[in-house]
Amino acid sequence: MKLTRKDKGELFAEAIVTGMIVYFFYLGSEIVFKQVLFYAFPNLKETIWGLKLATNIYSFKNYALFFVGLLTIIVIIWRLKRRIKQMQLNHIIEDLHYIAQGHYEHRIPFALKGDMGKVVESIHTLVSSTVDAMEEERAIEKSKDELITNVSHDIRTPLTSIIGYLGLIEDKQYKNEEELLAYTHVAYLKAKQMSLLVEDLFEYTKVRQRSTPLTITKFNLVQLLEQLEVEFQMDAEQKGVTFNLEVSDLEIFIEADAEKLVRVFNNLLSNALKYGKDATLLEIKAQKFDEQVMISVSNNGAAIPENSLKMLFERFYRVETSRSTETGGTGLGLAIAQSIVELHDGTIHAQSNEKKTAFIIYLPIKSKEILKN
Known about the structure:
- By secondary structure, the chain is an alpha+beta fold.
- The chain is 62% helix and 12% strand.
């Protein structure tokens, strides 16, 4: 700890006072000793033996002075050390008050050893964890505000259309039954759009919780992927896209929640067909390793920009920024997919270049939930 001028002055005064106290104690002890000695032997000064004894006493005084001087130095050092520790504690308290006033970036600017050093280290750890908790809380609040804003925007648009068309019907502002059916059809589509958003939002909030229960079963992943291939084959053909499934083994058994994984693959395949601009090939690959399986869903369409690639799994994020429902969807699909994969202790990431855009998933072969049971 760097001592201030005031601290140095206090230490100097402490040393002077301590030295004077020891010296006066010595003088008082010497006077008392002489009085007791001569009171016990009143004729001591008048005898030869008394003269010798007195001479020995005064000779001993030199040794006593040396001892007292050494003792004085030891006591001064001991008291100064205690005083310095007290100063350190006062500085720590001052720094704590300063931090408590909102200066959370401040740290106690000196290193200490022993117990005091552990206290300072604990204070720094506590302040850092408090700052992290506050930043996390701010991020959560910001995230909630963004969630409300995005949901409000996405619900308001179809809701406005529904109210508008139902208002026209209510006021009988239609020419014929055909126009009436057209209005009701638009209102129906907008209602379905709102329903999809609400369902995705509900699913997102549910799978974001690590405590969400999974229905773990053992199933053949290859068989599941083959079923998905059949389901998406027609859509792929209509868009002029070749669907290809490639697996390393005919049977790859894993322990997972099959229903939730279907949600993940449905989302990835739908995105690949919907947003894979100019794509001619949609490909699923599954490869088994020792303790995990890798599944990739890729297409050879236009590449995703680098700045968008890093944000794909953020909720409500869309590469297409107009938030059009024709191209943008709800913006929750990939965030839901990531949460489901993480619930299975797996990982998902995206890669994109001019040749291929791929979403790669790694899942453990065995579920920890079954292992615990």
